[in-house]
Amino acid sequence: MASSKRFFPFGLVLFAQGLVAGADDRPLPSVKHMIDTHIHLYDTTREKGVPWPPENDAVLYKPHLPAEFKAVSEPTGLTGVVVVEASERLEDNRWVLDLVAGDDYFVAFVGNIDPYREDFEAQLMRLRKDPRFVGVRARNGSDAKPVDYHDAKVLESFRTLARHGLSLDILANGGGVEAVRQVDRLAREIPDLHIIVDHVLGYDIDGKPVDPEWVAAVEKLGENRNVWCKVSGLYQRSIPQPAPHAIDHYRGVLDVLWANLGPKRLVFGSNWPCTKNSGDYASFVRLVNEYFSGKGQDACEHYFWKNGAEAYRLKLD
User: Fold this and answer.
1) b/e burial code for range 64-94 (CB count within 10 A of at least 16 → b)
2) Where are the alpha helices (DSSP H) in 171-280?
3) What is the pTM assigned to this prediction?
4) Structure confidence by residue, pLDDT tens digits, 229-248
5) How high is the pLDDT of residue 7?
6) Average pLDDT value for residue range 238-266
7) What is the pLDDT of residue 144?
8) 149-153, 264-268, 308-312: lowest mean pLDDT where?
9) Which of 52, 117, 218, 272 gives 39 a disulfide partner, CB atoms 3.0 to 4.6 angstroms apart?
């Protein structure tokens, strides 16, 4: 774990927020550790390119590598990061692990192994030789083959994860109520599997009152003690773009998550470099800190590091 750490004032914002105005004046967290559980690293100049992001994305389609991330994140007080694989290519898991080898700032890695593979467990064991490998991410969005959570092979693969003490990330972007229900069914089917749902359960944030049907689904999901949710990717889940930097735009959704998953199961993640489309890294950290600082110091400690450490079984002092 990186030992150098800066501490910043802790408190609430006392003035109105516009899209960007005032963002640099908001406080940054003051916590023992600060672990970003969701960033992506890739190099678009590699010989075979990358499957994501698309070439027409002028902001994201360029190399995003460790040196740049450290430069933008260390000033916020970040002490460690979990890299989440954004490629479905099996060999790219090893590429990322090799990329951050020997750098303790990168504390863990969530890989990508197709749960339909007959050799799922064998591939899992190869990656597990690296102690930073903590689990895999399943996708049910339009960017990859949808995962059928009723499929016997898929469930077998996920039970294998649980048996080996590894986690499952779920990307539920745009899935709405049905995506939340799918996670609920899976959590009940495999209660010893740690499930981390990315990006506020994939809810499309429009600043309006939250869909009551979604609220009911989240209430039911919250009954599962093996489910965590990343309060990550808020800029990307916002319907208005570029995304507002005012916390009130997101507050309704965050209040639902807080009420049902509580202080022990909400997890910090940025979704860098996707944050670049609406602001810099520090602006996102300030945005989420504005919400959680209002819940008290203990809530901040859990959100910024303790909950992620429990979900991913990270060994932090």
Assistant:
1) bebeebbebbbebbbbbbbbbbbbbebebbe
2) 176-189, 212-221, 234-237, 248-261
3) 0.91
4) 999 999 999 999 999 999 99
5) 32
6) 97
7) 58
8) 149-153
9) 272
Check: CB of residue 297 under 8 Å from CB of residue 117: no
Please tell me which residue, 7 or 157, carries the higher pLDDT value.
157
Please tell me what DSSP assigns to residue 64.
B
Under 8 Å CB-to-CB from 290, ≥6 apart: which residues? 12, 13, 26, 27, 247
Q: Say which amino acid occupies 273.
A: P
- Gap between the Cα atoms of 310 and 231, Å rounded: 16
| Predicted local distance difference test score (pLDDT) of residue 145 | 66
The residue length of the chain stands at 317
Which numeric CATH code is attached to 31-312? 3.20.20.140
- Cβ 304 vs Cβ 31: under 8 Å: yes
Strand ranges for the chain from DSSP E = 35-39, 80-84, 106-111, 133-139, 167-171, 195-197, 227-231, 266-268
- Phi, psi torsion values for 91, nearest 5 degrees: -65, -20
Q: In what order do the strands lie in the sheet with 167-171?
A: 35-39, 80-84, 106-111, 133-139, 167-171, 195-197, 227-231, 266-268
Task: Give how far the C-alpha of residue 24 lies from the chain's centroid of Cα atoms, to the nearest Å.
Answer: 23
Look up residue 282 and give its two tokens: 């520090």
| pLDDT over 70 percentage in the chain | 91
